Amino acid sequence: MVDIHCHILPGFDDGSDSIETSLQMAEMAIADGVTHIVGTPHANSEYDFLPELVRARRDELQSRLGERVSILSGCDFHLSFENVNTLRSDPRRFTLNQGEYLLVEFADFSIPASLDQTLHELQLLGLHPIITHPERNPLIRSQWDRLWGWLRQGCYVQVTAQSITGGFGRRAKQAAELLLDANAVHFVASDAHNVTTRPLRLKAAFDAVTESRGEKVARALFESNPRAAVESGALEYVPEPGDWKKTQEDMELDSSPPRKRFWFF
Ligand SMILES: [Fe+2]
Q1: For residue range 64-79, what is the model confidence (pLDDT) as tens digits?
Q2: Which residues of 60-84 are buried (b: 16+ CB within 10 A; e: fewer)?
Q3: pLDDT value at 108 more than 90
Q4: Ligand 1 centroid distance, CA of 8 (Å)
Q5: Which end of the chain is more exposed for a tag (fewer CB within 10 A), N or C?
Q6: Cα-to-centroid distance, 124 and ligand 1 (Å)
C-alpha cells in the first residue's frame, strides 16, 4: 500500500516528535504492508512549511530505514489565502513527491464560496487537488452538495483509514461509509501522527473496504490510485459519483447540521 498523507517526518508539527518515533511509525507501516510513505507536514497558521528542511529530514529517515520502505515528501496544505499566494509562484513546493497532486485541507469553521474558484485556480496551475478527510469535517458533512460540486470540478477525495475503522467517532465513520457507498472516495490514507492515538495503520481499513466494497475497490483506494498520485500519473479508479441524498436515505443517516458549540473561558 501507498500512504499519501502522514505526519511521519520529525519535528515539524503535531506529528512525530523525534527520529525514534518516526522509525517506530515506519516499522508499523512496514508490518502493515505499506511500501511507500509520503511525509506531509502541515502548512498552516500554526506551522511553517520548510521544503528544504522537509527533504533533508526525509533523506535522514530514508537512510536510517534503507530500502525496506520508500519515504517521499509532500505537504498537508491548508487552503488559506497566504498559502495559495505562495503556491502560485512555486506550485510544486507543496505537492506530493513534488508532482501534480496536492493535498488540500479546509478549515473546520468556515468554507467560503470563493474556495470553489480557488480550487479551480489550482487546477489551472496544472495541479490535481485532493480534498483531505471530508468525513471528519462537520461543515462539509452538513453540506455534501459543496463536496459534490468539487468532485464535478475534477477534485479527488481522501478519507482517513481510522475514520473507516471508527477511531474518529460515529459521525465520521458513517460519513466515510456514505462517501464509499456513493463512489466519492479516491484515496484512503493514514494521516498518522504518532504510534499511539494516530498510528500508521492501513490494513484494518483495507480489510473493511474489501469486505464492504470488494477487493478491486480496496486495491484502487489503497494501492493503485495513491501510487499514481505520487508518480503524477492518471488515476485508474475514478468512478462516477452517486446521489448522496439517496445514499444518505438508504443508510438512514442523521443529516442534521452540527450542534452549536459554546466555548467558556
Ligand atoms: Fe494531516
Answers
A1: 999 999 999 999 999 9
A2: ebbeebeeebebbbbbbbbbbeebb
A3: no
A4: 10
A5: C
A6: 24
Distance 250 CA to ligand 1 centre (A): 31
CA of 57 to the centre of ligand 1 (A): 18
Domain that holds residue 48: 2-251
- Give me the torsion for CA of 80, 183, 177, 110, rounded to 10°: 20
19-42 pLDDT tens trace: 999 999 999 999 999 999 999 999
Rounded distance from Cα 162 to ligand 1 centre (Å): 12
Cell numbers 464509499: residue: 180
- Cα(75) to ligand 1 centroid in Å equals 8
pLDDT at 265 over 50: no
Distance from residue 4's CA to the centre of ligand 1 (Å): 10
Task: Determine, yes or no, domain membership for 36.
Answer: yes
Task: Report the CATH number that the domain containing residue 227 is assigned in CATH.
Answer: 3.20.20.140
137 Cα: distance to centroid of ligand 1 (angstroms): 13
Number of domains in the chain: 1
Query: SS3 helix, strand, coil % of the chain, rounded to 5?
Result: 45, 15, 40
